[in-house]
Design a protein that fits this description.
The chain is mainly α. 31% of the residues lie in helices and 5% in strands. The protein has helices spanning 2-9, 17-28, 106-122, 130-147, 197-203, 218-229; strands at 63-64, 84-87, 94-97, 159-160.
Length: 240
């Protein structure tokens, strides 16, 4: 898949990837055995991909995001190259593809680029690279299951992590009444960036201007992750 080809191409950069990996782990590491979370903390079009496409997943149960727990981020590619416009991506607009981004689904890449642009204005000292969001997105959901999102960036079916019932993972009782994860008993990580519901309640944001903060929307999830990574004055350009 395109996302896998992208993952093989990325190279390690000088940004604080260890710090970012720790932040990512806190973001969704409720899936880790024994982890206890901190107190602070649609259309029917086919998937929009930069190369090729597949049919939308059939309606029904959610996509299961459960997999062996991972905290190590793929290495970053911090090199920036020529930008070239390609169709699609932004709702009602175009996305520009930087060097190293052509293997990513178009809408997913655009969500990362928009999040980077947004935090460059709101948190200029953070120096968040879009490649970091892409690395997290690859680890957490395989780039929203290889771009299985509609034109607005919402996944066709929810991407859910394992049930956090203490059976090999943390034991986290329901915090959202099943609103995001559909489980009224235990929490599950949700969406392309695998936020747990309690974390989403704190960090959730509307990233695509539709008036709704939805963890299953890649624009919303990418921007929320960007704010999370840049919190507390974190500077991601400082080597770890």
């Amino acid at each position: 898949m395109a996302a896998r080809r992208y993952a093989r191409r990325i190279r390690r950069g000088a940004a604080g990837t260890a710090v970012a990996a720790a932040a990512m782990a806190a973001l969704s590491a409720s899936q880790a055995p024994g982890f206890l979370p901190s107190a602070h903390a649609h259309s029917t079009a086919s998937p929009d991909r930069s190369q090729g496409g597949t049919d939308a997943p059939s309606a029904g149960g959610p996509i299961d995001g459960g997999s062996p727990y991972i905290t190590q981020l793929p290495p970053l590619n911090t090199a920036q190259g020529p930008f070239a416009p390609v169709p699609g991506g932004a709702p009602g607009g175009h996305v520009t593809v930087p060097s190293g981004g052509t293997g990513l689904p178009t809408t997913v890449l655009n969500a990362y680029l928009r999040a980077q642009e947004s935090v460059a204005q709101s948190d200029p000292g953070c120096h968040l690279p879009w490649q970091l969001l892409a690395a997290i997105g690859q680890v957490e959901s395989g780039q929203a299951r290889d771009g299985a999102v509609d034109a607005n960036g919402t996944t066709y079916t929810p991407i859910l992590g394992p049930v956090l019932d203490g059976n090999g993972f943390a034991n986290i009782g329901d915090t959202d009444h099943g609103r995001y994860d559909g489980d009224p008993v235990h929490d599950r990580a949700v969406g392309p960036m695998q936020f747990i519901p309690s974390t989403w309640e704190t960090w959730g944001v509307d990233g695509n201007g539709d008036g709704v903060a939805d963890p299953n929307n890649v624009y919303d999830a990418a921007l929320a992750a960007a704010h999370y990574l840049c919190a507390d004055g974190r500077d991601l350009s400082v080597p770890a």
